[in-house]
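tool_call: predict_structure(chain=1)
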Amino acid sequence: MQKPQFPSLNDIRHARVRIKSFIHRTPILTSSAINEIAGCEIYFKCENFQKVGAFKARGAANAVMKLSDEDKAKGVATHSSGNHAAALARAAQIAGIPAYIVMPSSAPKIKKKAVKGYGGEIIECEPNLQARETTLEKVVKETGATFIPPYDFMDVIEGQATCALEFLEDEPDLEIILAPVGGGGLLGGTALLSHEWDEDIEVYGAEPSGADDAYRSFKAGKIIPQTKPNTIADGLLTSLGVLNFEIIRRYVKDILLATDSQTIDAMRLIYERMKIVIEPSCAVPLAALLANKALFKGKKVGIILSGGNVDLGKLPF
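tool_result:
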C-alpha cells in the first residue's frame, strides 16, 4: 500500500486562503477562574462561534472548493449525524451546487433543521453505520455526486488543520494543544499542523470513556472499531478514520479519557464561567485536562472548543 501524502504547512496555508470567504477566524478566550481550577494557563479556540457552529465548516469548504467544475456540477454527498452535514450543505449552497445528506433518523432535530436551512436534501436512514453507508452508496450511484467523507479524507483533514494554524499564529507560545477525537479529522489536522509548526508542541486527544475506540486503537497500535458507544458527547460516536489514525499514531502524545459526569461538569463550568454555548463533545478536552491536572501543571495549554450545536431543551444540567 502506498504511504499517504499528508498536507504540508504550505498546503494548509493555501487551504486557509481557499476557504477564507467561507469561514470566521474564530476568537480565543481565556478564563482566570478556570485557570485557577486547572492549575495551568488555558486558551480556548472558539469554533463554537464558527459558521454552522462548528469547526466542520473548514474541512467541508476546503473539499468543495478543490473539486473540478465538472464534479461540482453533479453535487456532493455525505453521511453525517450532525455538524459535517450542515457544513457540507452550507459549502455546497455557497458554491451553488446540490448537496445530498444521508442522516440517521436519530440525529438531533437542531442538526436536521440546519441542513435544511442550508438547502441540503436529507435522506434519512436507520441509525447504524451500515445503513448510512448503503444509503449513501445508492445516492451517489443515482446522482453522480462526489462523496465528501466527514473526516477520513485528505482535503477535509487539510481544512480542519487551518484551525490549529490560526491558533498558533495568534498564540505562538502554546506548549500543549488538546482537541476532541471522534473520527479524528480535527485531531489529525491539529497534530499535523502542530508538528509542522514546532515539533516540541505536545498534542493530546480527548475522548469519552463510553466511546473510547481511538484510545484503545492508540494503545494497541491498530484500529479497533467503535462498537455500541454510550456517551452524552453525540459528536464523538464515530470510529476513528484510517488516515487520521496514521497521523495520530505519529504525532499525538496521548489520548485521554473523560467520563460523562466529568464532561457534564466541564460543560457547566464553561457555561457558568465563560458565558458561552458549547455542545457536550466540546467539553471533553477540558474534562480530560481536569482529570489529569498533573500533566498540564503550569503549562500554556490550547483547547479547541469544537462546536456549539446543542439542543437547549436537553441540557444535561
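agent: Strands lie at 28-29, 41-46, 76-79, 99-104, 121-125, 146-147, 176-180, 202-208, 254-258, 300-305. Proceeding to next step.
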